[in-house]
Amino acid sequence: MIEKLKAVCVASLLCGVLMACPVVAQDFKYPTAEEVQKMEAAMPNEAVVKPAQPRRMLVIDRCEGFKHSSVPFWDKALQVMGEKTGAFSVVITDDLNMLKADTLGQFDAVCFNNTTQLKLSPENTPELCKSLMDFVKGGKGLVGIHAATDNFYDWPEAMEMMGGKFTGHPWTSGGTWAFKIDQPDHPLMVPFEGQGFKISDEIYRTDPPLYSREKALVLMSLDLNDEATKNARGVREGDEDTGISWIKTWGKGRMFYCSLGHNHDITWTPPILEHYLRGIQFAMGDLKVDTTPKPAVGAKKVSELEQLLAQVKAYDFGDSREALTKLGDMIRQAYGNADKLEALEKALLSVLESDAKYAGKQYVCRELSIIGTGQSVPVLGKMLTDEELSDMARYALERIPDKTVDPVLLAAMLRATGKAKVGIINTLGERGHRPAAGEIGKLVGSSDKLLASAAISALGKIGGPDAAVALSQAKDSVPDDLKMVVYDASLKCADQMVVDGDRAAARKMYQSLYTTPGVPQLVRAAALRGMLNAASSDNK
């Protein structure tokens, strides 16, 4: 087992050198001697260009989220690369304090090696954020390997600097995927000789607006003309342009990112290693190359709405709500314009019909509860029997004033089971859908106490003759622990009958509650008031 190079470096004001101290190793499997030999054999023999001066790269491999097993492989590969080519030397650490200005200034580039969920934000770590941003903008380099885009969720400027954010990986590590070379004549792409290729690795999805060919020079991307790549499970609209490697300038500095690097054998694949060497030498400032973004010819310009929808699909609890706020503002501004609201409603429905995360769909349902119309009903209706999605669909449907809602709810209630069925019954009750009273009445005697209680309560809110009959029968038949639920529902049903003008039926229900043995005094008092109110209404 190869001992991992780990160091914490501090600046020495007296001698101007870096002092190294051991860092506790993470729980990783390190590359074997045989695997290190593979790296050494596959590595370029020399630097692409001679460094203008001795170069040093700080490699951060801290994982606060998922820990990729390839982390120690890349640590070793970068060490071997630097030593064999002479292009740079590395210091490897998981200590974020190394990003402090007095230490960071002694390096030419920072590499984020499969780092995940780093808790860097201007609010919580202002010194480190300022130091890193000043470092790159001031003329130094930033290198990202694979999971480097799974960071900075509370630091939008850094996400913009990296040029992408992890939102999923339909192309999993066990599959073989196709890649196309977007800039075959670019110096960083020389190793591929202008030819696309296939390889097994895990590939991260890239969503706009962070990922954009107008903001960075995309060097290679997924080739969705390949059937396996196009039909990977979870591929969705918008994945047609999934960047793999890109470069950009950031202030006076330079950034290089490559998505390849999940599987261990990537660290002994010659063209990819040379691509990384060239990217690192670019980031350090030794390899001068064109970084001018080149939008795809004839590419569809992504609208602001499309960008926001992409971010809503990727949104998860705890993420920045900036996109949700912007989309909400866009909806509010459309109030009074029926055509705009219809278009926005349709756009929101596309999120529900996609593989968006739960949090994004929940946000959409809240918005549809405000602007939803009949066009939302079929989409929301399909979600009603899904245990996970039913509550959010009901939340929207309950507030949509369209006559098609109630039949859809009733049909779903007949198919649903468990908590989803209980929830739908509650919603039918809130909407007072009287045609549902007959079917709901059949559930009053259910052995499932939760279901029976929901049915009884819903009948009270629905009211009408069918509800009254079901509640009258239930009064004497339900278990003791449900009798108060029946009494309360019966009072509500009788109250609704008074409102409807059916005072005779109302008085009958009140009287039954008043005279039935065992009915609590509080309920009997309410029934008596109801009878007096119904009689008073007769005299008006």
In short:
The chain has helices at residues 33-42, 71-85, 101-104, 126-137, 156-162, 227-230, 270-284, 304-314, 322-333, 338-352, 358-371, 377-383, 390-397, 405-415, 418-431, 437-441, 449-462, 465-477, 480-500, 503-515, 521-538; strands spanning 8-11, 18-21, 56-60, 89-93, 109-113, 141-145, 176-181, 197-200, 217-222, 243-250, 253-258. With 540 residues, the chain is an alpha/beta fold. It is elongated, with a radius of gyration of 32 Å.
Report the CATH topology name of the domain at 8-284. Answer: Rossmann fold
Shape: elongated
Q: Alpha-carbon distance between the termini?
A: 95 Å
Q: What's the CATH class label of the domain at 8-284? A: Alpha Beta
Number of helices: 21
Q: How large is the radius of gyration?
A: 32 Å
**Which percent band covers the strand fraction?**
5-15%
Q: Give a short account of the largest sheet.
A: 9 strands, mixed
Question: Which parts are unreliable, with pLDDT below 50 for 5 consecutive residues or more?
Answer: 1-26
For the record, the CATH architecture of the domain at 8-284 stands as 3-Layer(aba) Sandwich
How is the largest sheet built, in terms of strand order? 4-3-5-6-11-10-9-7-8
What would the average pLDDT be, to the nearest integer? 91
Number of strands: 11
CATH superfamily of the domain at 8-284: Class I glutamine amidotransferase (GATase) domain
Helix content: 40-55%
Classify the secondary structure makeup into a structural class.
Answer: alpha/beta
